[in-house]
UniProtKB/TrEMBL annotation, chain A:
InterPro entries: Rhodanese-like_dom, Rhodanese-like_dom_sf. This is Rhodanese-like domain-containing protein. The lineage of its organism: Bacteria, Pseudomonadati, Pseudomonadota, Alphaproteobacteria, Rhodobacterales. Pfam families: Rhodanese. Residues 103-214 form the Rhodanese domain. It comes from the Bacteria. PROSITE patterns: RHODANESE_3.
Automatic annotation (TrEMBL), chain B:
It comes from Gemmobacter denitrificans. Keywords: Membrane, Transmembrane, Transmembrane helix. This is LysM peptidoglycan-binding domain-containing protein. The chain crosses the membrane at residues 6-26. Residues 281-330 form the LysM domain. PANTHER family: POTASSIUM BINDING PROTEIN KBP (PTHR34700). The lineage of its organism: Bacteria, Pseudomonadati, Pseudomonadota, Alphaproteobacteria, Rhodobacterales.
Length: 229, 336
């Protein structure tokens, strides 16, 4: 008896909300990652990471990531597969990569942007390895490759057999930073099958309202969640 | 090529440690110098006996900065690969390389130019030292990973680093720190390689590995799990010696008839209708046995555990499902 009353009440509430044009109250369960997954949880370097979506169905982007027509060059449309055999990835593949590789210590999510952009907000769990640091002219490049698990060989070059699997991203389809990072890594001999490319980058991550690392401040800067358009 | 020479040195010292005889002395009695360069099979230590002296030898060889033999002495591996060649010069060079690279037991036959490599610890190695991360596979993979970890050469030290542009340097250092935080989870391979580097005893390694396995921190290949559920580090360490030999290009793959009798071993000869006879061997699992240990016992190489596992699928669900008292069929050498 009590149960049926409750059901009717909540049904009525939804009706009223829809008729009067008000957004329904924000509840985490209403904006899920997928039908079967509300959010993703993983532990990375001893810290728990939760990736979910902005719960407000009316939220829109504000600021930097709303531009449609950045000048090209330099902001040109980038290929999905800039290096042959580097697998393209979407958000679910990226989240799966964090769980199956990064959390297991066998992979690193690489943010190839410059530190200034990384500091404004990044995908949770990412490590900032700016594309410029992977250029052969950087005297630190070999140390970075070694930190990724490449083993320097006595006669020059590297053995990448134990190297980490990488997922590389940058600002989005209009930014060439992840492309340059992937090309530099491939030129250094990094096996393409150990690299993945999230071409959508921050642009696509934000348009889906996905969790941004860097706290509420970063999220406010990058993806303003507004109830009213 | 250079790597091959380094391994020759490792094996040279290994063999010298085991036999206690300098190789150069032995080679004098061998008519064909090439035949002498390939040492005879080394008797692997029994799994129950901690093979400490052998590993001290391996580590002594591995930890020494491996001398880089210059091109002048370099034809050795080629000479070994092309076994048909009877180029005495190449053989002499190989011998010289072997002596130069590790034993320290005899003067080189002909002094060869040797370049000492820079072995300085790089900044990156202090900041981040990612361990290899293979999946828990078979013993071969585990062993190969440990050897790879141990023989990895250090990256160039940062002499050029001072010239870096400050912004690039700051970004690079931040990236290195970020990557250092992305610490990989410990692995069986990483633990053993680290302990061997530190010169730890076999007993220490056994305790270390078993504690980590007990806490489920590391994955262990099934063939290394004993009938009591412990990790058989003795077999793992024995396999390491075999792999060091492999790396030096020595034939190790041929299985040998090591056991014909002994505790738990039964041999049945069945007469066939055509007058021939066939041998069937069985082994009753004892406490402390692992599939790897049994393969080592019968074939001289833990890597053959899969043959025993496959022959006993009826009673073994997985390679680590061994129980004391189980009677296993041991396939004949011809069936491997």
């Amino acid at each position: 008896m009590l149960v049926s009353v409750k059901v009717r009440l909540s049904g009525a509430a939804v009706c009223i909300a829809a008729l009067s044009g008000f957004a329904p109250p924000a509840a985490g369960q209403e904006v899920r990652l997928t039908e079967s997954m509300a959010e993703a949880r993983l532990v990375l370097n001893g810290r728990e990471i939760v990736i979910g979506r902005t719960p407000n169905p009316e939220a829109v982007l504000r600021g930097e990531f709303t531009k449609t027509s950045r000048a090209c060059p330099p902001f040109c449309i980038q290929p999905m597969t800039p290096v042959p055999d580097v697998a393209p990835a979407g958000e679910l593949e990226l989240i799966g990569f964090l769980q199956d590789h990064a959390a297991q210590g066998t992979g690193v999510l690489i943010d190839a942007r410059l530190p200034e952009w990384f500091g404004k907000g990044a995908i949770p769990g990412a490590v900032n390895v700016p594309f410029a640091t992977l250029d052969p002219s950087n005297p630190f490049r070999d140390q970075i490759l070694a930190a990724l698990g490449a083993r320097p060989l006595a006669g020059g070059g590297f053995d990448f057999s134990q190297a980490m699997t990488l997922m590389v991203y940058c600002n989005g389809p209009w930014s060439d930073q992840s492309v340059r990072a992937l090309q530099a890594l491939a030129a250094a001999g990094y096996p393409p099958e150990k690299m993945m490319h999230y071409r959508g980058g921050m642009q696509d991550w934000l348009i889906l309202g996905l969790t941004v690392a860097g706290g509420p401040e970063a999220e406010a800067k990058l993806a303003t969640a507004e109830g009213q358009p | 090529m250079k790597v091959g020479l380094i391994y020759l040195g490792i094996v040279g010292s290994l063999v010298a440690v085991i036999t206690g005889v300098p190789w150069v002395t032995l080679l004098k009695d061998v008519p064909d110098p090439l035949a002498g360069v390939i040492p005879p099979p080394v008797t692997a230590p029994a799994p129950q006996e901690p093979p400490a002296p052998v590993f001290t030898g391996v580590m002594a060889a591995l930890e020494e900065p491996a001398p880089e033999v210059t091109r002048a002495a370099a034809p050795a591996p080629d000479a070994l690969e092309a076994t048909q060649t009877d180029d005495a010069t190449a053989a002499a060079a190989a011998l010289a390389a072997l002596v130069v690279a590790g034993t320290g037991l005899a003067d080189p036959v002909e002094p060869e130019p040797v370049a000492a490599p820079a072995a300085e610890q790089p900044v990156a190695a202090q900041v981040a030292a990612p361990a290899p991360q293979p999946q828990a596979g078979d013993i071969d993979q585990t062993t190969a990973a440990i050897l790879a970890a141990l023989t990895g050469t250090a990256p160039e030290s940062g002499a050029a680093v001072a010239a870096a542009d400050p912004a690039l340097q700051a970004m690079s250092v931040a990236a290195l720190n970020g990557l250092a935080n992305a610490k990989p989870a410990p692995t069986l391979e990483g633990l053993v390689a680290q302990a061997l580097r530190e010169g730890q005893s076999d007993a220490y390694i056994d305790a270390l590995v078993n504690e980590a396995a007990g806490r489920k921190e590391i994955a262990v290949p099934g063939a290394l799990v004993t009938a009591e559920g412990k990790v058989d580090t003795a077999v793992l360490l024995a396999d390491l010696v075999g792999k060091a030999q492999d790396a030096a290009g020595q034939p190790r793959s041929a299985p040998r008839e090591v056991v014909t009798g002994g505790d738990g071993v039964e041999v049945h000869t069945v007469a066939q209708a055509d007058g021939s006879s066939q041998q069937f061997r069985f082994y009753t699992v004892a406490r402390g046995d692992s599939l790897g240990a049994i393969a080592e016992k019968f074939y001289g190489d833990a890597g053959y555990y899969l043959a025993i596992f496959e022959a006993n699928r009826a009673i073994l669900s997985t390679p680590d499902a061994l129980n004391a008292g189980q009677r296993l069929v041991i396939p004949g050498i011809s069936q491997l």
